[in-house]
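Retry 2 of 3 after timeout on previous attempt. Resubmitting structure tokens to design endpoint.
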């Protein structure tokens, strides 16, 4: 698993918009023809899918059906997913090294290779107009976002180089503080938000037409970005702290309100650890149990060989549900309106922690049905699936065009 757990939460079916009670299990969801049609005929933007890092670790041909993972062409077609952002993820362990920049270029190469193998199925997308025209052609667009700004290496020339190669958003930090920003996961707050270079980078990203992604950054860094940016920002794959108290990686209500004032979009992460506190507690419990063995028996204890599998047998993982994911969407809409929420599943990035009803990219019709069941109109569903994000991207493009 690339990151520690992510999650989404659930509840269920009612025609009343808020305060839903009931309880249908999402695994039993009946997807209507209307929902399937809406998924097929609407551009679906997913803000974050970790295909490049997945195929770099273990190559598979995602232009065809694959036996594992969460994404491949047949499943994307089945689910109606046609504009997934390919995450160019660089581990924090490579920060401040040439290998960081090198890996980013290698992962971009892998996305280009997918398109080269199947130009009748995929196309690189570098603009909103690319996404729309490729949708009209029946192609799946592959826009790219960089997860972890480490490959910039403090050099604005790298920003330009990655923009030229197709990167259209940068997640400023990942699991550790880097030369740009503090991380929500890192207790060391070396910058108390953004670094001096990070503050310069915000302006440079605005000017070049690069979306700023505040997923993963510390709270202080988020507020500083909001103060400095001249364009709306995104959270490409974050959920809500309301449902995961104490988990800084998710956004709290005040941050969401500031995001709304900025005109930005939060794209809801599907990983169970991002969706419910139960999933977060389970992972903490597993970590503590492993640590107890290490302290008592050492790092070479035979009890660590199949530790996670054995732990899961005794302590089943509390998967979140589609309904709980919908709770996150509902809460954003209640706080700041329908125009500021989207989808950032983190497929291929959260391991075996995906919710019931949203196990891979073929399940987007389930999400659409869940939204319809909660009283969202077709117009609202389209905003959530892509229009909100495409509006932000268009505004970022327009600002850069004026600077040029």
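Retry 2 succeeded. Sequence:
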């Amino acid at each position: 698993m690339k990151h520690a757990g992510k999650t989404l939460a659930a509840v269920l079916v009612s025609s009343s918009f808020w305060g839903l009670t009931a309880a249908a299990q999402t695994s039993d969801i009946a997807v209507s023809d209307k929902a399937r049609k809406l998924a097929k005929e609407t551009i679906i933007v997913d803000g974050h899918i970790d295909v490049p890092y997945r195929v770099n670790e273990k190559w598979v041909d995602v232009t065809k059906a694959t036996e594992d993972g969460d994404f491949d062409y047949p499943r994307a077609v089945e689910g109606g997913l046609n504009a997934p952002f390919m995450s160019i993820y660089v581990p924090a362990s490579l920060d401040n090294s040439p290998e960081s920049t090198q890996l980013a270029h290698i992962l971009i190469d892998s996305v280009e290779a997918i398109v080269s193998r199947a130009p009748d199925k995929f196309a690189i997308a570098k603009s909103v107009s690319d996404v729309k025209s490729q949708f009209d052609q029946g192609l799946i667009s592959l826009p790219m976002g960089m997860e972890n700004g480490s490959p910039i290496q403090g050099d604005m020339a790298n920003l330009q180089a990655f923009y030229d190669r197709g990167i259209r958003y940068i997640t400023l930090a990942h699991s550790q503080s880097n030369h740009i920003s503090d991380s929500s996961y890192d207790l060391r707050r070396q910058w108390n938000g953004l670094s001096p270079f990070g503050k310069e980078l915000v302006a440079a990203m605005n000017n070049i037409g690069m979306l700023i992604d505040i997923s993963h950054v510390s709270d202080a860094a988020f507020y500083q970005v909001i103060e400095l940016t001249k364009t709306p920002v995104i959270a490409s794959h974050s959920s809500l702290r309301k449902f995961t108290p104490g988990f800084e990686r998710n956004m709290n209500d005040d941050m969401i309100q500031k995001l709304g004032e900025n005109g930005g979009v939060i794209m809801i992460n599907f990983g169970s650890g991002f969706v419910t506190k139960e999933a977060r507690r389970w992972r903490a419990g597993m970590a503590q149990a492993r640590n107890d063995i290490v302290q008592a028996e050492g790092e070479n204890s035979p009890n660590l060989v199949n530790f996670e599998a054995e732990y899961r047998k005794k302590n089943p993982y509390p998967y979140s549900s589609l309904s709980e994911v919908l709770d996150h969407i509902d809460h954003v809409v209640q706080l700041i309106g329908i125009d500021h929420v989207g989808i950032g599943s983190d497929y291929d990035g959260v391991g075996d922690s995906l919710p019931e009803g949203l196990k891979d990219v073929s399940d987007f019709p389930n999400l659409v049905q869940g939204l319809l069941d909660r009283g969202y109109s077709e117009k609202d569903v389209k905003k959530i699936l892509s229009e909100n994000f495409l509006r932000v991207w268009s505004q970022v493009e327009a600002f850069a065009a004026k600077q040029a």
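Attempt log closed. The domain at 9-276+318-403 is CATH 3.20.20.140 (TIM Barrel).
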